[in-house]
Every structure is written in structure tokens, then in C-alpha cells.
Amino acid sequence: MEIIPAIDLRGGRVVRWIQGDPSRETRYGHDPTAVAREWERRGAPRLHLVDLDGALAGAPGNLPALREILRAIHIPAQVGGGLRSLEAVRAVLELGAAVAVLGTAAIQDPGFLEEACRAFPGRVALGLDARSGVLATSGWTEATSVRATDLARQTSDLPLAVIIYTDIQRDGMLQGPDLEGLAAVAASTRIPVIASGGIASARDIQALRALAPGRIVGAIVGKALYDGRLSLEAALVAAGA
Hints:
Elements: E1 2-10, E2 13-18, E3 21-29, H1 32-41, E4 47-51, H2 52-57, H3 63-72, E5 77-80, H4 86-95, E6 99-102, H5 104-108, H6 110-119, E7 124-131, E8 134-137, E9 142-147, H7 148-154, E10 162-167, H8 179-188, E11 193-196, H9 202-211, E12 216-221, H10 223-226, H11 232-238
Parallel strand pairs: 1-4, 1-12, 4-5, 5-6, 6-7, 7-10, 10-11, 11-12
Antiparallel strand pairs: 1-2, 2-3, 7-8, 8-9
């Protein structure tokens, strides 16, 4: 199972929000490229880059920072946040992203998700961001009535790279991942799943690894790494890397 450090960008800086709330922001650095290089140096197999400005505005807002990061690293990176047009998807892929993560646009317009998958097969991920299993959009500011398991099931035949399931209520809270929700999503689709939200310890990673072997293929870790609660090295060991 891959351990994937998250780099969340706001105004070109590395930050972390708690439960997606911009008012609960912690800044971790003015040089996101240096942060990316450090995670790569320490053994990260992949990075998860999020354009928070883009997620709120509905269009990419940190392309210069993303370009610099993607030019500086040699490991693959998945990029999300504000990718709500085919042009935006193409832009981040042309910058060097291995995978573009679609959330809001995929939920609001399934046809767009299908179009993006046809245009870039194997290079699009579906981001399912949920509260109590129900999806939220627009930087987690708008609730929907769509269940994560339903959309996972409906998109199972698309040429997606992966599904990323985030429990919003656990994000940044360091209280452990939503094992029940992750198991349900993994059982709903043939697409491999990456877990996100609440991961705080090596024990959490071991629990994910045992939850659905071969189905849950990665874990995105943010606050626990930045706060020093969990080292990347310990996370990699727990994941069997």
C-alpha cells in the first residue's frame, strides 16, 4: 500500500485545514517545492497535491506553484482542486501531473467525468469527499444527496486510475480513518481506492492495509506528518513498503 504525503496549496504556500475549514488553517511552509523534494528524498512513492484556491474558486489558482513542484520531483503526483473543465484537466496533466483528480465536476456532471476519462484514460481519479457517507462539493462547502457508494458503483466501468475517498469529518482531526465507509466504497467498485482523512498512526495504516487487501491501495497522510505525530519512515514500514 502506498503512503502518499499531501501538499495542500493556498496562495502558493503549504497549509492544512481542519475538516476543510479555511478559518482553521495552519501554515507549514512558504516553499512548497522544497517540501515536495523532502518527501521524495525520504521515500514517498507519490504525492497528493491539492489546489485549495482552485477548489473554492472553481478554476485552478496555484498553477505556478504546481508547475515548479512537478518540474522538481521525479515521483508521480496526483493533482486536484478546481478541475471543472477539460481544459483545466489538460493543463495540470501537461504540467506533469500523473493523475488529475475530479470531484465537484464529476458529481455535478457525470457526463463530464466520462468525457475526461475518454480523453485521458487511466489518468483521471474520482475524488469522493463525504460527510457520513454523503458527498460534498465546491471545496466541501456544499452538501449533496449523493452517497459515495452509489457514485463509486455507477462509475465502476470507467477507465479511472483510482478513487480517492475522504471522510471530511475526520480530515485533520487525527482520530483515525473511516474504516466502515472505506470498506463500503471498496466493495462498491472494481476501481482501486485510496484512503484519506484522519490517518494519525502506524496502527491506522496497518488497519487500512488489512481492511480490503488489493482494493485499498494507498493512504494520503497530511497533518500527522506535518505535526510530527507520524514519521514518513514509520508510515512506509506500516504499509509494507
